[in-house]
Amino acid sequence: MEYVSTSEIAKIWDISRRRVTTLCREGRIEGAVFAANTWLVPKDAKKPEDPRRVRKMGQDKD
User: Fold this and answer.
1) How many DSSP H helices and E strands does the chain contain?
2) Helix, strand, or coil here: 41?
3) From the CB of residue 13, how many other CB atoms can be counted at a distance below 10 Å?
4) Minimal CB count within 10 Å: which of 5, 13, 31, 46?
5) How far apart are CA 41 and CA 55, in angstroms?
6) What is the pTM (predicted TM-score) of this model?
7) pLDDT (tens digit, 9 = 90+) per residue, 47-61?
8) Contact 6, 17 (CB under 8 A)
9) pLDDT tens string 27-45
10) 29 touches 41 (CB < 8 A)
11) Is residue 23 a contact partner of residue 60, using CB atoms and an 8 Å limit?
């Protein structure tokens, strides 16, 4: 499995490096490992859904 740094995955996902680190720390990125004082993320990892952006069914904005 090929791993990339938080900076690299942040560019791929178009989010901040800090947000990627938080997602890793919370265990929301499958396969992420903490090694040598840095987070390593599998290159093929899926970006987790942001629960703040998910609408519940039937709650459309008027």
Assistant:
1) 2, 3
2) strand
3) 16
4) 46
5) 28
6) 0.79
7) 998 877 766 665 666
8) yes
9) 999 999 999 999 999 999 9
10) yes
11) no
How does DSSP classify residue 21? H
**The two structure tokens encoding residue 12:** 């791929």
Tokens linked to 28: 């929301």
Nearest to 50 by CA among 31, 22, 8, 9: 22
The alpha carbon of 15 is separated from its chain's Cα centroid by a whole number of angstroms, namely 8
Distance in angstroms (rounded) separating the CA atoms of residues 57 and 47? 22
- Quick check: helix, strand or coil at residue 48? coil
Helix (H) or strand (E) holding 38: strand 38-42
User: How far is Cα 39 from Cα 33, in angstroms, rounded to an integer?
Assistant: 6
